Amino acid sequence: MADAPDLGSGGVIHGGSSPPFRIFIREDIMETKFEVTNSYTKVVTVDFTSEEVNRRFDEKLVEVMHEVQIPGFRKGKAPKSLIKLRFSDVLIDEITKDILEEDMEKIFKDNNIEPLHIEKVDFEKIELDKPLTIVAEVHVKPEINDVEYSGLELVKDIFIPSESSVDKAIEGILDKSSSLEDVDRKSRKGDFIVGKIGDELKYLPISDNLSNEMVDILTDLGKGDSIEADFEFPSNYIDHTLRGKSIHAVLSVNVVKEKKRPELTLEFMKNVYADCEDEASFRDKVRADLIAASADRSNNSLRLSVFKAIAEKNSVEIPPTYLKKEVVQRFAADYGINPEQIPEAQQNNLVKSLGENIARIIVSNWLLERVSDLENIEITDEDIERRLSELAVSYRTSPEAIRSHLEKIGEFDSII
Q: Which residue in 29, 70, 220, 359 is a FRET match for 150, CA 20 to 30 A apart?
């Protein structure tokens, strides 16, 4: 079988129910068959007649005859037989590309198929005077008719922050507002080392997420010191270029930096909340932010409970290849890495550890979409903007930043 290029991926199947086997015929050109093999797989078989294969080849041949110049002939005047001899393989490749990318895409579109994933495409190399058969196995969103969602029992938590919670939140605000200052001493936990690993300058925080071995390596180092060691960086390390990497290298220390926290002055408090009047009003505003953030967490927890409950009441299969792709892409988006750089073994481990929760979210979104259709629920742009604003307040960022992050991890459609 010949190798097929990636046909891309789509979203979901739209429209009504489909019979398990359907045929669409264009007389004397092609015959297209659709077969449903399970709840999420459709096998699309396209048979091109030998006459159609020859017609497409002749069209390409005529185009080439007008464009190329063969030594000994004026442009466009070389014999057709000579052009065919020289460019036959190239033209066959172009026809194959056209069929796989344009014809198959049109067949999917005309028959309301939007692939989640193209599992495989099988076909023999195109030959003149012979028919061509292409078989594509396509994974789609399972068709969902009725959804059982009545009688769900859900509990929403209400959080009232204590004074110690406010104190802790203020400590966090001060910590985030800290600056890094050069210090003339040996490094210790909590410091930043600025130095070279090999030829690259790096900022290396001696943070809590490092292993004890890594903390031992990076502490007790000063300006001008060097150390050769095996560096093991966690997958959530602050420097995304080092995340999850194991490196044997020499670290040369340029400078040690210490985190300096600001004082809780009125000027600082006004920088955080412009209308703050004193420490009491500052604490009130921190408390209000804690309540808002807690309410959002509670809503998210409630949303996850809905996801779990509705998924348990309704059995829907999710294509395993599509699930793996979603798990890897979401993990990569969270940690700012290229999904293609994640080794196959790690991808499989991610599916084992994250697959169940992500599958539940995906299936629940499908089910809730169907509920929305059944109940004629419409989500307006105003609803989306209001929700983005609520999240922005909770996370002390802008609605645009929230939108960008949700779109990056593929969760934007589930914010309402």
A: 359
